[in-house]
Design brief:
The longest helix is centred in the N-terminal third of the chain and has 51 residues. The protein is rod-shaped. The protein is mainly α and 119 residues long. It has 3 helices and 2 strands.
Length: 119
């Protein structure tokens, strides 16, 4: 019976397990900053898309013709927007004919820095 245990000596050594742990640690150290960068870029792009959507809704509001004055968010939601867009939980300010800007004053969320807005 002792010979059976000696022949069936399968498994991983401590060194092999430590090499796997080190490799996983290196992969995680590379993946986490890349993930954070990608999520930050996605958040900035979503904010810019929200700004364009609100500006399009404002243009539709003006083109409707039956409206007077400057629109506010409550006038846009329902007819021109399905729901109020937000950036990090904050509502966008509509300043008359001025372009819509990020409510968090984040420079990465500014559409003016990329030159994509028309003046």
């Amino acid at each position: 019976m002792l010979k059976m245990f000696m022949k069936n000596n399968k498994g991983f050594t401590l060194v092999e397990l430590m090499v796997v742990v080190v490799i996983l640690g290196i992969l995680v150290a590379i993946a986490v900053p890349v993930y954070n960068s990608v999520t930050g870029t996605a958040e900035a792009n979503a904010c810019k898309a929200n700004q364009r959507t609100i500006e399009s809704a404002i243009m539709q509001w003006y083109a409707d013709g039956s409206n007077s004055g400057d629109p506010d968010m409550s006038a846009l939601v329902g007819k021109y927007l399905v729901e109020e867009p937000k950036c990090r939980g904050k509502s966008y300010d509509i300043n008359g004919t001025n372009p819509v800007t990020c409510p968090n004053d984040d420079p990465d969320h500014s559409r003016n820095s990329s030159g994509s807005t028309e003046e």
